[in-house]
């Protein structure tokens, strides 16, 4: 072993020690006596197998603790398997004398209680990717009892923290609340959003997302003529929520990986390359206590691997040098007419991307804005070339900071006067893990060349992004 | 003891046993080895003293476990006192080789990383009421290291979960991140909202809320000419966030209870009535490990008691019977002209209210919509009378379900044909406790008389609310 290698090893060991405490977030530990060790032990090798299958070096710094992190996040995201409705609702039923004074449900006052806009996250049982939920829960009190409002949210969250299909989620929340509160009826409505395949992410608005609406109802909410159901829908409309739930009572396959999947039989042809990864995902399901042979989970490991493989290491390098300059880009003009002082600054804005966070194996997605100086010929680089560049640096295991810099450096290599890149992204790992900051959004900047030394050039580019921000993410 | 009393006692004991598990929410237990018992023991008697001071019967069903619940929620809401920045950040610093290739901060790429729209809740150190925060955190990496994105959110949350002043919160987040990440600089910007005094809650839009903006910056973000600070503000503008932070560097007293407070010297006159409550709140501060003599906390117990006393039991009963009918209410007309089929249905919409949740001693606030049938005289009841009714039933320790029914019954007592009430409210207890569902909003309905039997009358009233919903909460 050479001196250089020894030094590298020593540094790695030191880093490993420094990282010992990593991710021991108080918020994530949960209150349970975690029987984690054994189960996580089964999950970590599975994640390592996935990394290897992606062509990654599992020992490189950014990935070294990814198996531990993924195992922990996955266990946290499926904690609903280890919770019970009884523990949540029991004791949170309050006698509400007034409700009892008259006969009939809700004390004869035709009343109902609705908690609207409960934001949840769940995991799609078809592909193991997270999906987001806007959940609305109502019930009609009976027997002179009301339930603590937060319990409607907690019970919904409990079922969301399992591998789910949106309609089953609605049904499970409805029947669990009905059984535990024993009201005159329960109404559940939810809108769900599933990330599309990376290639279907649309520019600017992320409109490629798959959206469905689902409902489930019991007791007095049932039946075509239930006026309580009409009232429930009216209360949702007050918040701008228009439920189109007529045709979604069945278990519709909504997962985009189901409609684009490789037929199961074809997987045998790919056996050598992907079989290890599929087995690894199957063992992850087993360690959650799930049955991989359950009808809805058949093919799930294959679909998750199919998704991951979209982000596998690509050893081809992409350079802009070879690209021809097209005419398809116009110089930035200040709003209200008048060319900018920096007439030679060009920009390509709102280029969509979807990457996979190398720390958590979860997607982050958003838009890239690129600014550069043209070469004096007055011609810019065609947008499609930038989109290819973004795809190359985005569609892999990444971190946003590195991706931003890499794109900036690639652009700088052909636009020698200067390059500037802004990336705006939502991180599923910020949402579906313990932090659960649903609306938080991360922006990164990299600035090179003249943009670094000329603040007005930088400001000019940022203004061009701002002018189009209304139509953005 | 009579047979009736014995039966009552037996029922109470049974209820107590059934409630034994109450609020043992897994989500709330936290991962810490809680040294809770002794401290909560000090807090629960304090809460009981507050209930007695409010003229309440602390043994009535809705309040029986309120001391336990408040103690737990208060401890959870101030868990930041028992967390350390080191534990959160340590080990989440990732070497990012590319950032190191060039000299200067962010590897010479003029870059920064900004997490925008982190939603937080904190407690105002001036009055102990929760306030909400939209937090934005940026930093410029240095030394070839980036920090896990979620840590920016977690560190911010840690300081928010203490008794705070908005500007100090911004400063503490900034300096803690600077010390722990050792970047080239940290930028923190936040917008904060504080609930106003109940009497200042405005109709429809809740515009009475006190809003302030605060910023704190270190390193390369400092100075008037910092272009990195300009970039940071530009990235916020992309999300529609316009920071007006020029004049908020000082610790401005923003708490509405500070500007309307009873001078401290006057409290001696009230000694007999409120002194016990003030002592109780002081003991709550002590049990958090806070120093009640810290400058910023002087007067806090008095202010919190002053707030609570706005919701004290009022033994006067309010009836609409005595009110004269005015001309100030017009019959509901369908949008697009044309009177409704139910010409005699009248409505008073968006009556603001602020109540105090009897389960958590935290405010819930929103609007009340009232529908009723006029008496045939063609004259309605003046809006001010309804507002007085809402104030009477709202401004006390309440639960939303009961308040809805009580208002409906009061209206029904004068409008014998029918009465219908919808209450829409945000509950601080749904937000600042463990659930943290910031956008969730609860709607309750009570329906009496002809509204119960005539679905079209009910639909007509709900439509009138919907038609004005755009301008509502």
UniProtKB/TrEMBL annotation, chains A, B:
Any one annotated GO CC term: cytoplasm
Database matches in InterPro entries: GTP-CH-I_C/QueF (IPR043133), GTP-CH-I_N (IPR043134), GTP_CycHdrlase_I (IPR001474), GTP_CycHdrlase_I_dom (IPR020602)
Top EC class for this record: hydrolase
Family that this chain belongs to: Belongs to the GTP cyclohydrolase I family.
GO biological process: folic acid biosynthetic process; tetrahydrobiopterin biosynthetic process; tetrahydrofolate biosynthetic process
Catalytic activity: GTP + H2O = 7,8-dihydroneopterin 3'-triphosphate + formate + H(+)
Domain GTP cyclohydrolase I: 44-195, 279-464
Subunit structure: Homodimer.
Transmembrane segments annotated in the record for this chain: none
Pfam family, one: GTP_cyclohydroI
Protein role: GTP cyclohydrolase 1 is the first enzyme in the biosynthetic pathway leading to folic acid.
Name of the protein this chain belongs to: GTP cyclohydrolase 1
GO molecular function: GTP binding; GTP cyclohydrolase I activity; zinc ion binding
Keywords: GTP-binding, Hydrolase, Metal-binding, Nucleotide-binding, Tetrahydrobiopterin biosynthesis, Zinc
E.C. no: 3.5.4.16
PANTHER family: GTP CYCLOHYDROLASE 1, GTP CYCLOHYDROLASE I
This protein's pathway: Cofactor biosynthesis; 7,8-dihydroneopterin triphosphate biosynthesis; 7,8-dihydroneopterin triphosphate from GTP: step 1/1
